[in-house]
Batch of 4 targets.
Target 1
Amino acid sequence: MELVEMVYLISKELPDTERFGLITQMQRAAVSIPSNIAEGYGRGGGNYRSHVLIAKGSLMELETQLELCVRLQLIKKERILDCWKASQDVGRMLTKLSLALVKNK
C-alpha cells in the first residue's frame, strides 16, 4: 500500500502529456499489486499463489515504467530511488510468500 502511495506522488510530478500514458500505466500497475494479493487471499486455495505471481508481474511492469520515466528524462533518478527501493522490498516479500505457499501445499 505504501508503494502505491509513493507511485501516486511521483506520478503527480510527471508532465500532463503523460496523463494517458505512463501515469495511468504506473498507477494501474501499482494498484494491481495489493489488489491481486487481496483477491487471491480472499478466494483462498491454490488461487492465492497465482494471484501473488500476478502481483509480482505487475511489480515488474511498475519497475519498467519507473525506469522509462528516468530514461525519457521525465523525472530525475534521485526522485524515484525511494520508490525503487520499496519496489525491491515488495519483490522480495512476494518471492518469499510465493515460495512459502508452494511449501504449504
Note: The domain at 2-103 is CATH 1.20.1440.60 (de novo design (two linked rop proteins)).
Target 2
Amino acid sequence: MKIFIQNMVSLRCKLMVKYQLDKLNIAYKSIELGEVELVLPISPTIKTVLGTALHQSGLELMDDKRAMLIEKIINTVVEMVHHTEERPGLNFSNFLSEKLQMDYQKLSNVFSQTKGVTIEQFIILHKVERIKELIIYDELNLTEIAYKLHYSSVSHLSNQFKRVTGLTPTFFKSLKKRKRINLEDI
C-alpha cells in the first residue's frame, strides 16, 4: 500500500516521516519524496493518528488524486534540480512524462491550473534557488554551476537568474546578507 505525503521535499522531511512511522510501529518498504510504500495497509484510526503527527511537522497525508499528481510533479522537479548530479538523457518534459507515465500536456495543464505557474516556471524557480545555494557555498564557479544545473552557458544562467531575482549572480555573491527561500515555500 502506498500513502502520499504533501510538502515532503527534503531529507529532513523523509527523516521526520521515518520517525513518525517508527513511533507508530508502521512497517514500510520505502520512503521517497512524497510517497511511502507500506508493508501492510493501515487502519483509518492509525492513518488519522499518522496524519495528525505529520501535520505538526508541516506535512499532510493526501487522498485527492489531483493533489497526489501535483505532489509527484513537485517531487520529481525537486529531485532533479536539488538531488541529481547526472544530466538527464531527455529534455525535462519527456523525462517527466516517462517517470509519471502520463502525457506531458495533461501534466502541464493540471499543474498550471492548480499551482498558477507552468512547470517550466516552477523548474526555473527551483534552479535559481539551487544557484543561490551553490553561490553561497562558494565551492564552484559560475561555469561549474552552469554545467551542474544543465545550462547551455554561463550567460544563459546569468540571464535567467537576473530575470527571477533582479540581481546578477556576481552581485548576489557580493551581498553580505543572503536571503534564500525555503523549498517548501516555492
Note: Residues 35 and 84 are 18 Å apart (CA to CA).
Target 3
Amino acid sequence: MRLVLASGNPDKVREIKEILRDIEVLPLSSFVDEFEIEESGLTFRENAYIKVQKAFELTGLPSLADDTGLVVHGLHGMPGVFSSRFAGENAGYEANRRKLLEALRGMPLSARRAYFICVVAFMEKPGEVRFFEGKVEGFITKEPRGDGGFGYDPIFLYPPLGRTFAELSLREKNRVSHRYRALSRFREYLNESGLSR
C-alpha cells in the first residue's frame, strides 16, 4: 500500500516510516514543492483532519496525518494543541522545552504528571475520514535527559522503563509511544478492511 503523509517534519516522517515499515509512506513534499497547512483546529482531531484533507486534496491518494501533543496536568492541559509552538510560532524544540520547564519550576511531582497523545487521521475517499488515537502517561523531568528523540522527548519520563523518551533507542520508543499506539490501531483497521494488501 502507498500512503501520502501530511507532514513536513523530518523527525515525525522518520518515526512513522519506522513504525509502518511494511507500507510505502511518502511525505507530501514528494508530490508538492511547497505547501503550508495551517493548524487552526482547537483539538488534535480537528488538526489531524485539516492536514489529512489537504494531503488528499493535493494528491488524490490515500493520505495519513497525525496531530500530536503533550498535555501537562499542572498546566491545565497546556501546551496541548500548541505543543509545537508553545514558545512562539517559529520556536524550536529547545525553546519549547525551556518554556515548559520554567512554567513547572517549583511545582510538586503531582503537577508534573503528563501524557503524550497522538491522533491519526486516514482518508482514502473524499469526505471519509477515520481516526485512531494513542496515549502514553508519564512525568515531566526537571531537566533534559538523553540525546535521542525530538520535541519534548528529553523531558518526558516513561515510568515503566525509568527513562525519558530521549534515552530510548528509536526501536524502543516505537514499541511504547503514543504514535506507535495510534498507528497500531490504524494498522489493525487496514488488516481488517483488507486495505493493507
Note: Residues 44-59 form the longest helix (16 residues).
Target 4
Amino acid sequence: MEPIHSIFSRTVVLPYSDIDTDQIIPARFLTTTTKAGLGQHAFSNWRYNTDGSNKSDFILNQSSAQGCQILVAGNNFGCGSSREHAPWALLDFGFRAVISTEIADIFRSNSLKNGLLPLVIDKENHAWLIANPGAQVEINLETSSLSLPNGKQVKFNIEGFARYCLLNGVDELGFLMNQLDQIKQYEQERA
C-alpha cells in the first residue's frame, strides 16, 4: 500500500446519491481475488454501452477526468453489499480519495484497509465541490484537512489507527508484522 500524506488533484464529480457497491463494481466482476485490472470495470454499467464501447457522456470517459485522484460523490456513497472489490476498483482506476456527506460504514472500513481515503465533509462545502467539478483541491492527511481553491480549510475526522496505517502505507497485517519483535518478546516473557 502506498503511504498517503497529501493528495493534490482535480476532482471528478458523480453527484448521484445512494451509489451502491454494485454500481461501483458490478457483481459479474467479483470472480477475481486480485486488484489489478478492476479499474477498467469501475462503474461499468454507466461507462460502457452493451457492445463494450464507451458512453461518451459519462464523466469518467471524458478527458477532464483523466488523472483525477479525488472522486466527489453524492450522499450515501458505497451503500449496498459488502465487497472489497469496490475500493479495489476505484484505486485501480486511479482514485486515492472519495468525498461525500455520508459514506456507508462497510465501504468506509474496506476503503481504509486498502488505502482509499473516504472523507465525510459538511453539506455546505460538499455542495460547493459538487457545483465546481474539476476543482483543484488538496487533502492533507497529516492535518486532517481539505484545502479548497478559495483557501478555505475543511477539517475531517478519521479514526487514529486507520490514519496511522494510511500515513505509513501499511494495512492491519502489515502493522502487526512490524510488531513481530515485540510480540515475540512478549510471548517469551510469558512462556
Note: The CA atoms of residues 17 and 75 lie 5 Å apart.
